[in-house]
Amino acid sequence: MSAHAGETWLLDLGNSRAKLARLAHGGPVDVSALDWTQADFAAQMGQLTSRWPRPSRVVVASVARAELADRVRALLPTDAATEWLRTPRRACGVGNRYAKPERLGIDRFLSMIAVHARTGGAGLVIGCGTAMTLDAVSAGGEHVAGLIALSPGRMLEALRVETAIAASNPDAFSGDGGDDTAAALQAGCWSAAGALVEWFAARHRVDPGEAPVWLHGGWSAQLAQWLARDGFQAGVFEHAVLHGLALFCDRP
User: Fold this and answer.
1) What is the mean pLDDT of the chain?
2) C-alpha span between 76 and 92 (Å, rounded)
3) Are 90 and 37 in contact, with CB atoms under 8 Å apart?
4) φ and ψ at 190, to 5 degrees?
5) Are 215 and 224 in contact, with CB atoms under 8 Å apart?
C-alpha cells in the first residue's frame, strides 16, 4: 500500500479536457471531466471539489499546455502535497525505453501501466483523444513500440480547412460514405484510424489472445464500433490514465 494517508485527488490534464477523481479502494472514483473551453471552468471545478473531502495529497498527470495547467494549479488547495508527475524510467512493472524517459507522455505511460495490470502481460494501448496514440507493451512490461497520429476529428478539421467540403453528420462514421462527399470524408478519416490500429496490432502481436487491444479516450467507443464491423475485437478501458495514476500512487 501507499505510504501516504488521507484523501488523495487524481488529476489527468489532457489537451481537450481535465479529468478529476478521488482515489479510493485502489482506483479512481467520482470521475468528472471539464472541457478547457468552458467559460465557467474555475467555477465548475470549485463546485465539484467542494463536495469532496479536503485532500492531503494531489497527484497530477499533465500533457496540457502550460497556461491550462497553470489555471488548474491556481485552483488546487495550497495545504495539500501536490505532485506533478514526470514519466519515470520504470514504475508498476512497466519499463520506459526512451533515451530521455520524460519525453514519453505521462498519459501514455500511465495508460500502459493500467493495461499491463489488467492483462497481466502484453497489451496494445490505443489512446483516442486529441491525438491518436498507439503503444505496445510486452509480456514482461517493456514498452516496445509507440506511434502518434492525428485523430479522425483532427483529420477532418485539417481537410475542411483546405477544402470546400461541408461538415457531415457526426454519425456518418457508421456508413461507407458512398453516396455523399462529406460522408465519404468522414468515413475515410475513421477508416484511416481503424486501419492504423489493425496494422499496429498485426505488427506487434501474433494472435488476439497474446496481446489484447484496449482503447481509451473520448472517441474510443466509436472506434471500437468501427473496428467491430470487420470482426476486429478491441475493449474499451474507461479512464485508463486515471487507473494508471491510481496504481502509480499506491505502488510500494
Assistant:
1) 90
2) 27
3) no
4) -70, -35
5) yes
Alpha carbon separation from 201 to 97, 171, 183 (Å, rounded): 20, 26, 27
Q: Is residue 140 part of a domain?
A: yes
Which three three-digit cell numbers place residue 221?
A: 467507443
Mean pLDDT within 58-73? 97
Catalytic residue among 40, 70, 107, 230, which? 107
Name the residue among 252, 250, 238, 249 with its Cα closest to residue 118: 238
Measured between alpha carbons, how far is residue 217 from residues 81, 140, 148, 238, 249 in Å? 28, 25, 14, 7, 21
DSSP state of 166: P
The answer to whether residue 196 sits within a structural domain is yes
40 flagged as catalytic: no
Which of 26, 25, 20 shows the shortest CA–CA distance to 59? 20
Looking at the DSSP bridge assignments, the partners of residue 19 are: 12, 33
Is residue 251 domain-resident?
A: no
Q: Is the pLDDT of residue 126 over 70?
A: yes
The pLDDT tens digits for 152-179 are: 888 888 887 767 665 554 444 555 655 6
Number of structural domains in the chain: 2
**Residues 80 and 16 grouped into a single domain:** yes
The domain boundary, picked from 63, 84, 105, lies at 84
Q: What is the pLDDT of residue 227?
A: 93
Q: Report the CATH number that the domain containing residue 15 is assigned in CATH.
A: 3.30.420.40
Element spanning 213, H or E:
strand 213-216
Q: Are residues 174 and 202 in the same domain?
A: yes
Which of 84, 106, 136 is the C-terminal boundary of a domain? 84
Q: Which three cell numbers stand for residue 8?
A: 488523495
Q: Which domain holds residue 35?
A: 8-84
104 and 58 both lie in a single domain: no
> Grid coordinates in use for 136?
505496445
Domain check: are 238 and 167 in the same one?
yes
